[in-house]
Amino acid sequence: MAGLLLGSIFLSTPLRADDQPKPVLPTTHPSLLLNDVVQLVLKHNPELKAASLDIRGASARHQYAGQFENPILGVALEDFMPGGPQSGNSATQTTLALTQSFPMSGRLGASKALSAAQLSVAQARAASLQVSILAETVVRFLHVVADQHRFEVAIRASALSAQGVDVAKRRGESGATSVVEERRANIALAYGKLDEEHAEHELLASKRRLSMMWGEADAHFESVAANLFAPRTLPTYEALAARIQNNPELNRLARAQTVQRATLSFAESTAVPDIKLNVGTRRLQSEDAFALVFGLSMPIPLFQRNQGAISSAQLKHSEIGAQQAAMRVRLLADIYGHTQEMNHAKEVLDVLGNTMLPDAKAVLEVVTHGFTVGRFSQIELLNAQQTLIDLERKRIDEAEELLRLLVRINSILGATELTPGVPQLGPGSPKPKRR
User: Fold this and answer.
1) 0.85 surpassed by pTM
2) The CATH number fitting domain 2-12+29-77+92-412, selected from 3.40.30.10, 3.30.450.40, 2.40.10.10, 1.20.1600.10
3) pLDDT at 375 (0 to 100)
4) Which one of 270, 274, 296, 422 is at 20 to 30 Å from 244 when CA atoms are compared?
């Protein structure tokens, strides 16, 4: 359901700049889902608002394109105040004429087609920008989710260190160990507290970076909710490569080629000169009479047939075609690289979840019990604790990286589903405690 919602978001027209007020989220907002965040970005992101204004400008230009030039009204006086024996104004001739240009070779239609192509490019540019901004939003959303997990792991690490301090104190009071062991435990606890504080600061910063996507400098929400560790079936490179033509930038370049074809047609139409028609009336002062005036003029295209603009449009069309080919190769290489990294991240997650983390938890349980009865040393306990914490952090890093790569791939493909499974809630969605 969430994927379909994101699909409708990507296919929708960008909102007008004045459609929605600036968002004001209550500071007690408990949690945001991905769909909540996406809706906020679509309504209030400043770059999307600017893109919508660009579309409105192109639409206005298209609306008034392909019209005739304004007629020219002219007044001419001849034989006005002559010298010599015919002094005075008795021989004056006054002409009032209206001049209108008539474009030839379908120039008005070509102008309309060019403005329509330019509007299409503006829409494609806005759609590409929307995909890019939403992809960055989802990446930042995932980073907040991951930082919430990291904060929880830091809290658990501090709790494990606190337990080690308690055990060391009891062992010291019973005379089973020296004061060195207690001090070593205190060092581990202090280090854990510093790490916990750093993780909280990182979380606060990532929440602000997320809220910036909808134009808010402060994060007016408590947390975000998503399942970072939901099982996923990854697509193959071949299946992804088959959808490369859906790339928003390739689509924009295809429309840019349409603009160049329309530009070429317009340039070719201007090679045929306009016909100018003059119609008016002339007053003959000497005879107190009026006469009609008619004129027809047209430039002779001997030297200038707009060859420069025609050649430029032809070459620009070929240039964009070359850019498309180069971009297609680069995008396929990016998809292949992302796919390999994504498969590796999934393999690491499977090994961590199925083998390494269960073993690390079992080892810590055994070593913790053995330490209390003197079978294991404190060093072995600290190593077991650190190993489990490191593996939990590794799992978070790999899960975030896998989803980040999936988002990047789907944004390259202009996919209707950016992050399959991310909006799901479940055990993998912590709500960190505020300090």
Assistant:
1) no
2) 1.20.1600.10
3) 86
4) 422
